[in-house]
Write a structure and sequence with these properties.
By secondary structure, the chain is an alpha/beta fold. It has one domain: 2-enoyl-CoA Hydratase, Chain A, domain 1 (Alpha-Beta Complex). It is 44% helix and 16% strand. It contains 13 helices and twelve strands. The protein has a seven-stranded mixed sheet, with helices on both faces. It has a three-stranded mixed sheet with strand order 6-8-9. A two-stranded antiparallel ribbon has the order 11-12. Strand 3, helix 2 and strand 4 form a beta-alpha-beta unit. Helix 2 runs parallel beside helix 4, helix 3 runs antiparallel to helix 4 and helix 10 runs antiparallel to helix 11. The protein is globular and about 55 Å long.
Length: 330
């Protein structure tokens, strides 16, 4: 693994012009050729309320000051490790208000990302985890290191993805031709495992990488590949999609899938509780066409009650090690 951030590996930091810096949070760079790079800051490049605000401010410039935007981080370790701040605080204090605001603000920003007036491409190195994976799934295009990982690790902490991760996986599978049940089964299985894909071949098989998205062998090539993808996507229009869920006749099939995943993955009771919330959300909408924004509003309703103080040990383990906690944790 490279010990350089992608902008450094590409040799672009010294020639780029710093447009704006949000201290210890993010930077926006003009890299020429009508393109900009938004860089999350920090060793783990966490998504926080200030970084969501910074991303929104960058979108305010999109289409006027630059015609393409690449998302990356200055962490040598990964693109984004996950979301930090309010969710952990709610577990400690029991006050769900800040978490709900952060959740809704993040949802709004990701919808803005996808509908930005210029192409937005996420450049993934190391891994895109939890909230970072959801940011990548909302991007118009992707470029990735060939060995990078995409993961929705929320279930390991007893949570569901609150920024549309499961919905986006289903939509990508449906766009690739999967029937509603097959798209649901693939997305729910990825969520229950906590890992969507490891490496470029698996990312293409899971439809995380779409036609035209790039994978590169070396980190030095990552930002150039993302900038090239921006150019290819110029002029394309993006709009909200509707998720087609299987019919009510598949309710028993959904229950069987939940039971199978619980047994095969030896899910902890907190993981079982999170999976039950996700399958319950799906079950309530069987047979419906659900717009993305509607789906995320439903996620916002069921997410905060999951933030129990009892999850503290699981949160701490994932934050420290980035792995699934041992079964006797929490």
């Amino acid at each position: 693994m490279s010990n350089e951030a992608p902008l450094d590996a590409a040799g672009l930091r010294d020639t780029a012009r710093l447009v704006r810096e949000w201290r210890d949070v993010a930077r926006l760079w003009d890299v020429g050729a009508d393109a900009a790079v938004f860089e999350f800051c920090g060793d783990m490049a966490l998504v926080t309320p200030p970084s969501i605000e910074a991303l929104d401010a960058a979108f305010d410039r999109a289409g006027m000051e630059f015609g393409g935007l690449v998302l990356t981080s200055d962490s040598p370790r990964c693109f984004v490790f996950g979301a930090g701040g309010p969710f952990r605080d709610t577990i400690l204090t029991g006050d769900a208000g800040p978490s709900l605001r952060f959740l809704i603000d993040g949802q709004s920003t990701l919808m803005r990302l996808r509908d930005a007036p210029c192409p937005v491409v996420a450049a993934i190195h190391g891994g895109a985890y939890s909230g970072g994976c959801e940011i990548a799934l909302f991007a118009n295009g992707l470029a990735m290191e060939r060995d990078a990982t995409f993961a929705l690790r929320e279930i390991w902490m007893g949570l569901i993805p609150g920024w549309g991760g499961v919905c986006q996986l289903m939509l990508r599978r449906q766009a690739a031709g999967d029937r509603p049940w097959d798209a649901l089964e693939g997305a729910l299985t990825a969520y229950a495992r906590g890992v969507v894909s490891e490496g470029a071949a698996a990312a293409r098989a899971a439809h995380v990488l779409r036609a035209g998205d790039r994978d590169v062998a070396g980190r030095a090539d990552l930002i150039p590949a993302a900038l090239a993808r921006c150019e290819e996507l110029a002029g394309m229009e993006w709009s909200e999609q509707a998720l087609a869920l299987p019919g009510p006749e598949d309710a028993d099939r959904l229950s069987a899938l939940e039971a199978r995943l619980t047994a095969e993955l030896d899910l902890h009771p907190w993981e079982c509780a999170a999976l039950a919330v996700m399958t319950g959300l799906i079950r309530d909408h069987l047979g419906q066409q659900v717009p993305e924004s509607t789906w995320m509003s439903r996620e916002a309703a069921v997410f905060p009650p999951l933030l129990s103080p009892a999850l503290g040990a699981r949160f701490a383990h994932v934050a420290a090690k980035g792995t699934r906690p041992p079964r006797d944790t929490g």
